[in-house]
Design a protein that fits this description.
By secondary structure, the protein is mostly helical. The protein has one domain. It is built from six helices and no strands. It is elongated.
């Protein structure tokens, strides 16, 4: 039982950084989207929706990091893995972003095809790409810090930011 509890604790601790990152990111994206479309009838996302999305994305990133496809360049300079992971995560985020908008249209349309056509013709593409650029910058920063912590070590990074000994247990 002790090993099982330790494994659960380890999983929860590993889930905290990406979940916090996505909680902040999704909150910012929701706020920016609401500010850009204020008056357009777009409601601000609920904190529960944002928190659930952050949990799902946080766990997804942890699972993706286990795949050899994601960590293709572990022994090369950090820029390789950072760029590769950023590209993959940005493509996935663009797909999710589009599907979110499609879902909103689908609720008001008679079918999937009609919703997709409506979305393609009525979407404000400047807003879509503006949010994608913002997400790209945030995702790049996440991947950069994730790789730096992986190489430098969690204790050293924690000591650099918060003080203390780099060899002290977490």
């Amino acid at each position: 039982m002790n090993k099982a509890l330790e494994k659960v604790r380890e999983e929860i601790l590993a889930l905290i950084p990406p979940t916090l990152f996505f909680l902040i990111t999704l909150s910012l994206v929701s706020l920016i989207r609401w500010l850009m479309l204020e008056g357009g009838g777009v409601p601000l996302s609920s904190p529960l929706d944002i928190a659930l999305g952050a949990l799902v994305l946080g766990k997804s990133v942890l699972l993706a990091d286990l795949l050899p496809l994601i960590n293709r360049f572990p022994d090369k300079p950090l820029m390789y893995n950072v760029t590769w992971k950023t590209a993959i995560y940005v493509l996935v985020s663009a797909g999710i972003h589009y599907l979110e908008r499609l879902y909103d249209c689908w609720k008001l349309s008679p079918g999937f095809e009609a919703a997709n056509h409506k979305l393609l013709t009525e979407m404000v593409w400047r807003h879509f790409w503006g949010i994608q650029i913002f997400l790209t910058i945030l995702i790049f920063n996440y991947c950069l810090w994730h790789e730096l912590v992986r190489v430098i070590g969690e204790q050293k990074v924690r000591a650099m930011f918060f003080g203390g000994r780099p060899d002290a247990p977490a």
